[in-house]
């Protein structure tokens, strides 16, 4: 045999030996759960039904201690009760031979539990036969005669081995709880109006698209409000706003068992007052859950521009005077030119006449 094969067999032997060494005794009691996966609402509860079956036929009573362990290390509040929702003393149940019992396990989503959280719990029971004293004789719980027998307790008088410390364990039940927010919504407004910009005009209706989504677990319905504000303090009392969707609009939640739509597209309309002043205004749409969920809203700015005006040039009086004098000079020049020509002609005639005389 090769060396690596020897090491492999030795390892397998140690692993098997270790598993036997750490194994716990098997209990004749088993646990069955009606469900193992739960959605639990914030501030709500869910209840699992556990059925305990005892197959033992030797002991009159089997004490069963129910224990829990939260895998995450964060314990959510929980409790064991009987079928009437009465607490189990010390989380214990007594089962007779071949009997069964129903136990309710309720989990609360309050402390350390918020929508979106997931937590896993493991339930396992420790079982121990109950010891009954038989008069003054030391006897085990299964002895009904006066025969002296080995007792089932440390002091042969009382039951000193509680089930919670027993090494006899049942099968393990693992349950997963996912916390859900019952009612919530999100609202998204478009970047521009249906006209493609954020400019609006007095007494003209503008349209702005938005999408409403029910992000809660349950079906919800809503009411809608619209509000106009002005950073410059302009009067907005005469503006009109229409949210688009009517009061009571219903959308299904994210629970996959529900049928219907959880999202809707719509558009709000608003009309600036005829007397609205130029400036920047803010439009806000708010959606309110009729079942107590948090409000969702969106807002955007719109602009009423300044009115367009024609440019009018105002003439300077000094410039007007200078321009008038220049025009007059230009008009006088044609009259002066003929006068100069006449003088020149007379001088020329005079010179010619003198030359002839001499």
Written description of the protein model:
The protein is rod-shaped, with a radius of gyration of 49 Å. The protein is α+β, with helices and mostly antiparallel strands. The protein folds into two domains: 25-180, Sandwich (Immunoglobulin-like); 185-304, Immunoglobulin-like (Sandwich), CATH 2.60.40. The strands form four sheets. It has a five-stranded mixed beta sheet with strand order 2-9-8-4-6, with no helix packed on it. The N and C termini lie far apart (167 Å). The model is unreliable at 1-24 and 137-149 (pLDDT under 50). It is 17% helix and 36% strand.
Could you list some keywords that capture this structure?
disordered N terminus, 2 domains, rod-shaped, 2 helices, Immunoglobulin-like, single chain, five-stranded mixed sheet, 358 residues, four-stranded antiparallel sheet, alpha+beta
What's the quick description here?
The protein is an alpha+beta fold and 358 residues long. The protein is built from two helices and 17 strands. The N and C termini lie far apart (167 Å).
């Amino acid at each position: 045999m090769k060396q690596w094969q020897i090491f492999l067999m030795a390892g397998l032997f140690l692993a098997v030996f270790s598993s036997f060494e750490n194994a716990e005794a098997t209990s004749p009691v088993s646990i069955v759960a009606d469900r193992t996966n739960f959605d639990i609402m914030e501030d709500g509860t869910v209840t699992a039904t556990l059925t305990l079956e005892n197959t033992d036929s030797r002991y009159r009573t089997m004490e069963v201690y129910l224990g829990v362990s939260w895998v995450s290390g964060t314990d959510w509040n929980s409790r064991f009760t009987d079928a009437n929702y009465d607490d189990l003393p010390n989380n214990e149940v007594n089962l007779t031979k071949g009997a069964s019992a129903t136990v309710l396990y309720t989990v609360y989503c309050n402390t350390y539990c918020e929508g979106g959280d997931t937590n896993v719990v493991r339930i396992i029971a420790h079982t121990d036969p109950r010891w009954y004293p038989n008069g003054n004789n030391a006897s085990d719980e299964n002895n009904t005669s006066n025969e002296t027998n080995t007792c089932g307790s440390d002091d042969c008088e009382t039951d000193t081995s509680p089930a919670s410390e027993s090494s006899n364990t049942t099968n393990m039940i693992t349950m997963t709880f996912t916390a859900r927010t019952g009612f919530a919504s999100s609202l998204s407004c478009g970047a521009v109006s249906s006209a493609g910009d954020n400019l609006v005009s007095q007494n003209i209706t503008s349209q702005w698209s938005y999408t409403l989504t029910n992000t809660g677990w349950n079906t919800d319905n809503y009411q809608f409000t619209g509000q106009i504000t002005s950073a410059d303090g302009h009067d907005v009392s005469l503006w009109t706003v229409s949210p688009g969707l009517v009061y009571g609009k219903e959308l299904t939640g994210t629970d996959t068992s529900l049928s219907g739509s959880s999202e809707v597209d719509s558009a709000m309309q608003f009309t600036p007052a005829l007397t609205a002043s130029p400036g920047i205004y803010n439009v806000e749409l708010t959606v309110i859950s009729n079942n107590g969920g948090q409000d969702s809203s969106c807002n955007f700015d719109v602009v009423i521009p300044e009115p367009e005006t024609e440019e009018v040039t105002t003439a300077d009086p000094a410039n007007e005077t200078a321009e008038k004098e220049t025009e007059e000079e230009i008009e006088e020049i044609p009259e002066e030119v003929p006068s100069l020509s006449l003088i020149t002609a007379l001088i020329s005639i005079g010179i010619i006449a003198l030359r002839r005389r001499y």
